[in-house]
Amino acid sequence: MKKAFLVVLILLSILNFAYSDAGAWKDRTGGLSDKEFYSLARDKGHIYVGTSSGLYRQAQGDSEWKRIFMCRGQNKGVNHIFVTDNNKIYIATSDGLFGSFDFGKTWKKLFRGIGPENFTTYVILEKENDEIIFLGTLKGLYRTKDGGGTWEKPLGVLGDSAVRSIAKINDVLIVICDNELYKIQSDFKSYNKVFDGESLKGFNQDDTYNTDPDAGPIFKLNNVTIGGKNIYLSTNRGIFTSSDLGLTWSKFNDSGLLTRQVNYAVTMQGISGDILAATKEGVFVYKDDLWNKIYSGMESQDVRWILAKDPEKILALCKNRIYSMHLDSINIGKGSVTPKDILASFKNEPNINETLGMAIEYAEVYPEKIEEWRRGAKFRALLPKVSLGIDNSWSDTYEIYTSLSSQYWIYGPKDRSEGWDL
Questions:
Q1: Strand locations in 138-200 (E)
Q2: Alpha-carbon dihedral 244, 169, 223, 24, rounded to 10 degrees
Q3: pLDDT tens digit string along 186-210?
Q4: If we measure between CA atoms, which residue out of 47, 42, 120, 51 comes closest to residue 83?
Q5: CA 61, CA 46: separation in Å to the nearest integer?
Q6: What H or E segment, with its residue span, contains residue 262?
Q7: Any residues with CB less than 8 A from the CB of 149 and at least 6 apart, and which?
Q8: 106, 166, 180, 209: which sits with the fewest CB atoms below 10 Å from its CB?
Q9: 38-62, pLDDT tens digit by residue?
Q10: CA 190, CA 176: separation in Å to the nearest integer?
């Protein structure tokens, strides 16, 4: 019976693992020893990781990382990476913007600022014309129309405050600047604020938003991404979406999320309705109105960045780890595991009473044995345990006196004690 019970427990554990850990992450960090990873990108055949010391590249199907750019000087770190379809690489670093037009063999500095301007944070290119570059810095948003020869920036807050994230939808830029979200038109002059901390007042936020330890006391905008016609704004209060270029916003369903601290959210290309979220508690996939965590194989849970452009593989970046997973490993799209499927798989399992009986048999705590223990307790109460102790000790006392002229000693008195206890 013990063996049968153990088999049942093992089968239940395996079944639960199968649904909780529908996919398995593969650690691809091997060979990267930098203390901190900042950015992540990919092209058709390579993965790029920006770290505190430089830019690394790994070929698809390979396990070796090759450093193709090394940060120099006091300010180090590759904060964002943009790779074009024709193998041009742009990196926003803590010491300006660099570009490579020969697949990483040589590099050219395209932007050099003064003070905080030199600390670049984000870079994207115009899809139809890679001479047009949009660049975020700690001191405003910049644009070049000639590949970095000349730069311009808007007036006001967008030209004077820290830029955290940039996204483009149609001819409109969506920019996180000074912890507020702005929409700037194609003329690069007129812009307006579309979301900030005050926008939360439009949502019926309960008290958990103020007490969530992961969220913290200050509302923070982390990243902005585009999926189809929708804008996805990742914050420390969850995800907010807009389908009309920021005119109206809705709070995205957070059922199943273990934290509202969302660092990055992205739609999975070619798979309608499915969204991936990089959070402080790991990676979650949104399917059928519920977030599900992808557990297996990921030791580091604070995920900073996630990519899902490849229809076969997703990438997740943590502080000092990088993971990959095939999309078909997490049972998305058709054939996804539903709550009904999980319940149906338990139809032949023992019910709660049967399981309780197995546990009693395994522990050998059946009613007859309990009754035997009770009879033994009554018998011990009638015949209590008795102990007898006898104490018989004595001691002698000596006192010794000395001086310059004489010495003597005194013996006694003798001390003796006797006693007993029950």
A1: 140-144, 163-169, 172-177, 180-184, 191-195
A2: 100
A3: 789 899 999 987 777 666 554 344 4
A4: 42
A5: 9
A6: strand 262-267
A7: none
A8: 106
A9: 999 999 889 999 999 999 999 988 8
A10: 16
